[in-house]
């Protein structure tokens, strides 16, 4: 494990708070020192007068997303700072924690890339958090996990519960034994239901989206990054349907896509710019490379083998040649993305190897059944990304878990109403 002398800290001021930037050196693979070291970064925010408060570790959703970069203090963070010093961890491979992308992995063979990336799952993230806790001299800390951060929280409860005072989870209770196929069957069905809500609000958008896809099938339209926008890649904009804050944004994106150039109908450059920003994997490549691996749970599930692509065949309404109402896809990753996205193409062989690799388990069902750490979780009935029924089942299997079940929010409840949500979870955990 890392020791305090490997911790480097710098301090700045932020809107009435002190911000400590911590950098910690940790092994890539704790079982094999020859794999080298990486840096793990965390920003600790301390409210003036709150220096003696306990720590709360925040784990961001993803996988592959860095922790928030607050320039002002509001929402859930403002509420948390009333009780805690808040540690915003960049999970390994993201943000300032030795980011992993085509550039940083360029010197490795595909096999070496896959070997390295297989060590960036929740188990390693928890081990990094434990190293940081020890380096900061903390006996126990509280934890808030949003979405994939909640998955990591359940791994933490499985492996190092003695380090946790209490755990809060929003939209992030994973199935404990359910592999990717079961997850995607539920998310495809939920995506279909979400389309019904979207088209009820914007009835003309189904035909408009179909016209755009038909146009893309026959015309060479280029994104700002240079590659052709395919109809199947355009469909991935459905990930916007999973959040309250961006649900209407999909409609706004589609409002005025076409223009006329030299007598020919073309897609507007502004439309292509906005679509490219939504679809590119350049900023967060680990999201696509590792996404299916978060549902792989060892021998009980086996490899993902491109689960979203396989399960899609069970839902003909999502087929590219479907003649029914137009369907976007949501939080589903497909192998052809690594052919079409320049940010992902250099990692295509590594992603293929990972998709067919047996990865280890992430949860200890027996340890969770004997859990003694207070756990409070917000579960959203209409969550597009984390299936409601699996979350409820997991809550029942983690001893002592209290749930706030609601249909008030979609996946981004913490972003939209974070103060109220965290207040409710703190109340539940301490009741």
UniProtKB/TrEMBL annotation:
Q: Where is there biased composition of kind Low complexity?
A: 1-13
Q: Does the keyword Hydrolase apply?
A: yes
The record's InterPro entries line, in alphabetical order, gives: AB_hydrolase_1, AB_hydrolase_fold, Peptidase_S33, Serine_prot/Carboxylest_S33
In terms of Gene3D superfamilies, this protein maps to: alpha/beta hydrolase
Q: Which UniProt keywords apply?
A: Hydrolase
Query: Boundaries of each AB hydrolase-1 domain copy?
Result: 54-207
Q: Which GO terms describe its molecular function?
A: hydrolase activity
Q: Does the keyword Hydrolase apply?
A: yes
What SUPFAM superfamilies does this protein's entry cite?
Answer: alpha/beta-Hydrolases (SSF53474)
Where are the annotated segments for Disordered?
A: 1-20
Task: Say which family it is in.
Answer: Belongs to the peptidase S33 family.
| UniProt name for this protein | Alpha/beta fold hydrolase
Origin species, per record, is Kineococcus gynurae
């Amino acid at each position: 494990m890392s020791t305090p002398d490997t911790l480097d800290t710098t301090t700045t001021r932020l809107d009435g708070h002190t911000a400590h930037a911590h950098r910690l050196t940790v092994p890539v693979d704790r079982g094999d020192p020859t794999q080298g070291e990486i840096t793990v970064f965390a920003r600790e925010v301390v409210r003036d007068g709150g220096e003696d408060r306990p720590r709360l570790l925040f784990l961001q959703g993803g996988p592959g997303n860095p922790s928030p970069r607050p320039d002002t203090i509001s929402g859930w963070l403002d509420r948390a700072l009333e009780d805690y010093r808040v540690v915003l961890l960049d999970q390994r491979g993201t943000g300032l924690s030795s980011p992993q992308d085509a550039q940083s992995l360029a010197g490795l063979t595909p096999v070496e890339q896959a070997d390295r990336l297989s060590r960036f799952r929740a188990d390693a993230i928890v081990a990094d958090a434990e190293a940081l806790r020890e380096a900061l001299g903390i006996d126990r800390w509280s934890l808030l996990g949003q979405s994939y951060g909640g998955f990591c929280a359940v791994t933490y409860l499985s492996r190092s519960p003695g380090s946790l005072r209490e755990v809060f989870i929003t939209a992030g209770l994973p199935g404990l034994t359910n592999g990717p196929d079961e997850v995607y069957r539920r998310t495809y069905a939920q995506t279909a239901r979400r389309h019904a809500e979207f088209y009820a609000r914007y009835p003309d958008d189904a035909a408009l989206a179909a016209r755009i896809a038909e146009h893309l099938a026959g015309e060479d339209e280029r994104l700002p990054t240079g590659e052709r926008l395919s109809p199947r890649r355009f469909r991935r904009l459905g990930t916007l349907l999973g959040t309250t804050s961006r649900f209407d944004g999909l409609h706004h994106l589609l409002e005025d896509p076409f223009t006329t150039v030299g007598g020919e109908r073309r897609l507007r450059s502004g439309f292509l710019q906005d679509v490219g920003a939504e679809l590119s994997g350049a900023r967060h490549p680990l999201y696509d490379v590792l996404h299916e691996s978060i549902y792989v749970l060892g021998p009980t599930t086996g490899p993902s083998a491109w689960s979203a692509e396989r399960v899609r065949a069970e839902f003909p309404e999502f087929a590219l040649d479907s003649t029914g109402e137009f369907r976007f896809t949501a939080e589903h990753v497909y192998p052809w993305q690594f052919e079409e996205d320049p940010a992902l193409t250099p990692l295509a062989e590594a992603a293929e190897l990972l998709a067919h690799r047996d990865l280890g388990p992430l949860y200890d069902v027996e340890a969770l059944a004997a859990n003694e750490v207070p756990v409070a979780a917000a579960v959203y009935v209409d969550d597009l990304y984390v299936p409601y029924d699996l979350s409820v089942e997991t809550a029942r299997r983690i001893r002592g878990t209290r749930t706030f079940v609601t249909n008030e929010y979609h996946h981004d409840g913490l972003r939209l109403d974070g103060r109220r949500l965290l207040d409710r979870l703190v109340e539940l955990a301490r009741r």
